[in-house]
Every structure is written in structure tokens, then in C-alpha cells.
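Hi D.,

Good news: the full-assembly prediction came through. Inputs first.
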Amino acid sequence: MVSTFAPQAAGDLNFLKKLNRSSILGTVRRYPGATRADIAARTQLTKATVGGVVQALLERGWLREGELQPRGGGRPGRALYLDDAHHVLLGADIGVRGLRIVACTLGGEVLLQRYVTEPPTTPEATAARLAAMLRDMRDDPGIADRHCLGLGVTVPGPVAPEQPILRLAPNLGWVDVAFLEVLRPYLPELDGAWLLDNEANAAAFGEFYFHDGIPPESIVYISAGSGIGSGLVTGDNYPLVPRGVQGLVGEIGHTIVQPGGLYCHCGNRGCAETLVSGWAIRAALGIADTENLEAAIAARGDDPDVNAVLRRAGEALGTLMLNLHHTLNPATLVLGGSLMHLGERLIEPALAYFEAHQNDLLRGTQRVPIKVIHDSTFTAARGAAAQVMAKAALEA
Amino acid sequence: MVSTFAPQAAGDLNFLKKLNRSSILGTVRRYPGATRADIAARTQLTKATVGGVVQALLERGWLREGELQPRGGGRPGRALYLDDAHHVLLGADIGVRGLRIVACTLGGEVLLQRYVTEPPTTPEATAARLAAMLRDMRDDPGIADRHCLGLGVTVPGPVAPEQPILRLAPNLGWVDVAFLEVLRPYLPELDGAWLLDNEANAAAFGEFYFHDGIPPESIVYISAGSGIGSGLVTGDNYPLVPRGVQGLVGEIGHTIVQPGGLYCHCGNRGCAETLVSGWAIRAALGIADTENLEAAIAARGDDPDVNAVLRRAGEALGTLMLNLHHTLNPATLVLGGSLMHLGERLIEPALAYFEAHQNDLLRGTQRVPIKVIHDSTFTAARGAAAQVMAKAALEA
DNA sequence: TTCACTTAGTTAAATCTATTAACTAAAGAA
DNA sequence: TTCTTTAGTTAATAGATTTAACTAAGTGAA
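Then the structure:
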């Protein structure tokens, strides 16, 4: 299995219908305000087909009609938008330092968000806490009357590609947790699709799916927090999330960027995570796990040691960006994760290193645009919600 | 564009037909001897659909019937195989040190192969030489009466993802060459699909498509020759070849594995290619471009300098393997390229390094099987032929 | 031998999807 | 007003898979 939502390889007429419906919905998502004629041109479907599918999607509350789009000397088309009024997508992020949940519209607009800074303990206790938060949010008058399309949950570790099982979360101490099964008894009433994914994959998915401006061809999202990971999303109407045979795609924290370097908790030396990760920076600066990293570093002010550690971490991040660029060659690179709160002393060296080491392979091509998400508190949760929508769109 | 042959995102009944036909053909390719009933079970299509499509494929010379497959207490099914008798696939590999061509059956069996050790000069001269070789092979009595499905050509450098243009081949001195257009006037009579791809991508494709034994879920092929590159193939019925926005997916030669290391011709320091590549080994040992690398190294015998350089190159290769494993997480890792001719002094350290640095992320999962292709002279050309078949299968 | 049972594969009718072609609708320009 | 252009709808058509019933070909037990 390569993808979360890849179309199957063979199918019947019903499959074809789902394919086309999802494609039409994806066109409106990527090009808000598209008319039926625009959709027909982009998807290569006929006006008749598009008209019929759009009619069904309007009736089911997935699309809404907007203003007339003037055309040069012809009947104006009717703009179409994702209908933000009738459905809700739920996303939850189980982070090393707390839980975050969001409720989104089909267009990716966050209706509500909640955040608690209690580090997760056991899966059961976490599920109970998360369920309470979600039930409370679900009952909020702003969304209680919306139809819930499902819930996406992210975790800080690799998820098996075939089953929703968290394989290993070193920073939580969790191993082989089928978290959705743990959570379900606490939320029996919540219907729709239930999904589990790695935090970086979900964040990448969300940035790709709920893009602003021109739809990206592909995205690599680098999540620099307690550990460091990445997610890759490509594809046109169907976002593809390569996961690999063991769900380890993007586990760049343990790529070796400095042979013979520092020892990593994984047992190897010179892993990227020994240079650029929350735990590595804490270790280098002697900051306890119980302290808030951002506050502790701010408290030290313009300390040369701090500056050196952050610069070194930034340059390692730049190295990772270069290596990812040469290995995955994404159209867009997005930086996120809690380390971005540490600011320019980390980010600037990363961007500078990346810029300074561009090479001939890229001659004559556009530089890859880099987006820095300075506060990505809810990015993964929103990405999980995006995954719910992509899943539900096939059944719309 | 993510893939060479990905199904489009929307379509009509004819598209559905192509999808199912390709899926059925893919099932027979991956499971030779499958019966109609087996195919129906695997593809989720009905017996009626499978029966009809198989009938058409038998008539067109894509499939042939074999022996009866006994079933436990029921009518035996009829084994189906790819028909090796009626079609031919052509593949060509433009290498830094010579040209190689092959003619293959649908099953990947090489009918003929040719090799010349003239390093390519200009695109025009290379096209003329290649056309002469291909025409000569096409006229061979063994294949002259077969229907040609097309020609795949590989080049030692990144190819633009949307158009068949070689962007840059540093080792050939070629820049922005639309090689198929250069070649076409020399071979006007050759019909079928014409494809151009990077050598590592094509080799990976061939190893994935013409697999032996159990079909792999995904493959990363590392091509270690004059330079070093890699190709990735995943997917079920449709092999997917991620290329990236500029066709640079797998350009691992310029990932940085030793910050501050040796200078690379790309301008950066510590690129993988400064350690494990034909040119780096030549530079380290003072072997001229005009000499044959394998012969020169053999001539030096058990020289400690040679041993050290090869061990260092092998360990760098092992690092690359680890990093690719953590970034792309393929189900199978294949090592090929001309450096494999240098033997165990290079290969053994690579495998040992990879083995010694497995970490916790892989706990409880199967080790990645590693296949070493000791002589990959025709691997890329055969892979190009495989790509021709995949393309033609959609139109079969 | 016969019969029941199982699995493989084919056939014709039915179902469902998208397309085609003709239509209506709505705007601008002469 | 009329012509032209573009948007969107509708009814008939074409085409693909499925359904359901069939035939075919084996095993095993009475």
C-alpha cells in the first residue's frame, strides 16, 4: 500500500463514479470558484457528467453555488465552492507535550481548537482525556448540528502502513498501540471515518490539501520537535502519502549526517536527531525535560553556547533539507514543529545553509519555495482532519 | 506528475476498461500461471469480466493458455501466462562508457543483447550509432517477425518529469537534450511507444516489473557507477515511479553524508559521490579516465591503499543504504552499477555497515532483503524495455 | 456406476455510467 | 434586434461490468 487514498487498481462502474466524484470535488478544493465548465476542462469529463455530479454534491451539502463568473462574451458560469456549512471534520494530535484537537470545515477553516499541556501517560488515560475533549467540542453549539465526517488522530511515531497501529513512539514510551481501538469505547457515538497517522505525514497532508494560493504539486513537511521527522505528499486529485513497507518513510531523524558523530538513543552515531531535535538541544544545553524548552532558552538570553547549539542545529536542519531535496525533490518544502518557536537563531542558519549549498543539478530550475510555519501547534491536528475529508470525499 | 504510468484521476468507460485490462495483465505478470478464477479473486472483478478481457488478450497475443491447474475437488482452472512469442520490447542504455541494447519478451526474457564500448560523444553521433545497432537487432531473424511495442532509452542523468528531456548528464557533457527527438529521424520505421528515462529509474523499474519469485511491494535500486544514483518503484498493478518536480528523485549522489568532507564537482563538500563513485575511486587511487577501472584495480592486487579506498567507499554506500531505508523505506534494496564489478572489497563493507547500524525503528520487523546484481550491464536497458511494456499494456 | 458436491468458466439479460447531440440560458457585440 | 459565444441541461445512445443461470470438469462417497 503506497497511499492513504489511492484509487484501487481495478473496479466497476461504481468505482468509476467515486473516482470522478472525488476528482470533481478535488478540483473545486484546489480551484475555489471554479465553474462546471472549468471543472469539465480540467478533468476532461464532459459537461453532462460534471453537471450531474455537481447537482448531487450540491444536494448533499458538499458544494455550494456562489456568484456568476463573467466570461468574455458568453453566458457567465456559476462559481462553485466547498460548502462550509453542513459538515465538520475532527482532528486530534497526541504530542509529546500535550493534546490538541480541532474542528474544521470542508475548506480547512478551523471552527474550534483546544489544547491541553498534559504529557500523555498511558494510551488508556490519553484516550479518556482525548475523548472528553472531543465530546465537549462536538457538543459546542457552533458545530453540534453539523454532520461529522470522522476523526483523524496523529501520533509521534511510525504507523503501520496496512493497519492503524502505532509501532513505536520513543518519546511516549508506547509500542504497538492500536490507538483507535483504545479510543473507540470512549467515543461510541462518534461516527464517520476514523484514521490514525504519523504526525508529520498528517501535517504534510494538511499543508498540501488545505493549501493557500496555487495548489502545490508536492510537499515535504519537516517536523522538528522533540524528535525530527518528515512527511511527503504528492498527487493531483488523490493526494498520495508514501509510507513504505514498515511505515518508516520520512523517518529522517535517524539518517546519518555525521558519521562518527554523537551517540543517538537509537544506538547509532551521527543521526540527524543528535543535532536537530528538542532532546538533543536539551542535552547540549543541560535543560531538563520538565522545563519548557522555549522559555529556558529565552531565559539564557544571548548566551554564546546557546547561539552555537542553535546554529549547529540549524545547519543540520539545512543539511536535512538538502538531502531531502535530492532524494524526494518536492515542489515545496515546509518547516514546522515546536523547534520553530526557538526563532531565527535556528531558522536562519538552516535557510542560509540550504541556500548556500544549491548545486548544478538545479541549474536553470526554480528554487524550491520554503515555507516556515512559526507556530504549528494545530498543524498536525488540522492535517488529520484533512485526511478525514479526503477519505469521506470518495463516499460523498 | 508522480508516475510514469499512473492512472489518471477521472475517466470514462474506456478508461475503466484500460484500467481493468492492465490490472488483469499485471496479475498474470506477477503471478504466472494464474487462472481466470485466481485473477478474479485478486482483482475483485467478476468471473465474467475477467473471462471477457482474457479472451481478448489471448486473441491479441498478450496471453497464452498453459496447463490445467488441479483444484481440490472441482474443475481445474487453465493456467495463463504472458505470451512470449508475438511481441518484442526494445531497450537501450546510453552509459558513460558505452551503449547497450536489448530485445525482450513480455515476460522479461532477453532475446538479444548488444554492447559497444565507445563512450558517447555528441547526441547526434550517439543517436546514429544507437540507431544502427537497433536496426541491426530489429532485423535479426529471431525477432524480425514480432510486433514491436516500442523503445525505451536510458541516460545517466535526471530527466524532466513532464517531457522526455535529459536535463544534465555531467559525465557525458550533455545538457537539455531531447534525445528521442534526436534519435527519431534515424529510426523512422520503429513504431510503438518511445520513452526516455534516467538509468537508475529504469533499472529499478525493470527489477520491480520483471521480478523473480514473489512480487516485491517496492524497490529501491542503487546504481553505483561513474556517479551514484537511485530509483524507486512502488505500486501494485501500476508501478509508480516518483520523479519529483524536477526529476531529481533519487539523486542521492549529492546528498551530504560527511559535512566538511571532500569537494565534489557539484561545488559542495561531503557529497556521497565524493566517496562512492567511479570518479571518486579513480581520483583517490590516481587511475586515469582512459583506463578500465576494474582492470586497474585488479592489477594493483592486494594493495592496502586500494583496500582502504574500497572499504571507505563501501561504508559510504552502507550509509546511503541506511539513509535511503529511513527516508524511502522500500521493501527491497537492490545494488547495481559498474562498481559492483569491484567485488567484495567494496560490497562486503557496505552490507556489514548496513547490518551493523540497524536500529530500534525496525524492531520486530523483517530485515530488508538486499539483492546485489554483480553484473548489471544490461539491467537498465532491460528496465527501459519493461517501461515500454507497462506503457503498452494500457493500450493492449 | 451413480450421485452429490465443488470449482472453473461462459453466456444473455440487466444495470449503471458517461457520452453524444440537441437543446435552453445568458451574456456581449455589431 | 440579431449574431456569436460560452454555460449548463436533457434525452437518447453506447459501452462496461454485473447478475444469474448455465455448462464443464474434476473429486469422493454410496
